[in-house]
Design goal:
14 helices, about 450 residues, TIM Barrel, five-stranded parallel sheet, alpha/beta, 2 domains, Urease, subunit C, domain 1, nine-stranded mixed sheet
Amino acid sequence: MSSTNQTTLIRGGTVVDATGTRRADVLVGADGLIEAVGDENADLRGDRTIDAGDCVVSPGFVDLHTHLREPGKEEAETIETGSRGGALGGFTALVAMPNTTPPMDSVGVVRDVIELGKTALTDIIPSAAITVGRAGQELAPMAELAELGVRIFTDDGTGVQDDLLMKRALEYSVGMAPFTGGASVALAQHCEVNSLSAGTFMHEGEWSSRLGIPGQPSEAEDLMVMRDIAFARSTGARVHFQHLSTAGAVALVRAAKAEGLPVSAEATTHHFTLTDAACASFDTVFKVHPPLRADSDVAAVKAGLLDGTIDAIATDHAPHCAHDKEQPFDAAPPGMIGLETALALALTELDLPVEKLVGLMSWRPAEIAGIADTHGGPIAAGRPANITVFDPNETWTIDGASFASKSSNCPYEGHEVRGKVRHTIFGGETVVLDQEATR
């Protein structure tokens, strides 16, 4: 994280963090820390002042699921362009997924990503693969990677199919404390049973039958969630479920949490805003992995976010070049971009108090990622100045081509939404000012 040589006063905003909501001015010090927080009578002064009138001032957002493509597919995205999009979306930390080329399954590749992230506009938090090459055959050197700072392990778009190997990985993860300084690690799972999903390209249901597109049954997700809940119960290991998309999976996680098991879950914006009916256009922008599901699944995901079953809103930001997406539906790669639309879609589509919504995007994912010491914490003196200022009422029209990403595979083109990030402060530096990136 960077710091500046000047102080910044954020004036006139409503501060929202895990401690509550209050009207306060926030003084960001030149050292990258919050220097003071006070009401309008505190007479705080900075070298420059940012107007936060009618805005929420919150801890910076944390995305648990970002594909930055570097190394290997820099034509679709780089750490720099992805972090710029993240900052414009209010994120101050992005958890980089390991499905790069080569994959992030070794100390060398992860160290390269850490180095590339040093000049980014957000914190780049590398995850690492559970298995070598994400191939599901042998475990990656998890202890070495944990010693380097990795706190989330995932094979990402490929769920670990081998039951015994997954159980061993979870057992191994419980003993990581000597390599992490006592911190725990989480194993994050893309829940999909390949024998049920092979050769499918959308959700199995009414629309797949109408369109003649082979569909993936909900059970492909539900069965792996069920398996890993059983493993969490027997091993005591932390399991994080990525991009829940089915009603069955949400119900299973809800029951596991009621039992007190160490599980957490995320949902993407597209899985609570879009359904499989969108695929009727055969537009590959709507092809995603796991697929867009039925209305009842979308309702279940929303309910899971409302009642706390689902801990975090993630983007699964997955940029692709236009020529890759301009293929037949069965041949095109899955994925859509989402960093600059996440806040607005959540504000527009979810009937949530702003305090709960910010929690889903800030301090709860920060805790899961193991970065709560620097992100998502309260807006208080002495804390790192990773801050988002957003107007919850500003309306705007989504235009994917205008985004910072190198790719424009956005499924919300032309949608009118509510909620816009005004300013983002990362490590004390104002990286987004008046809705524009400063570098």
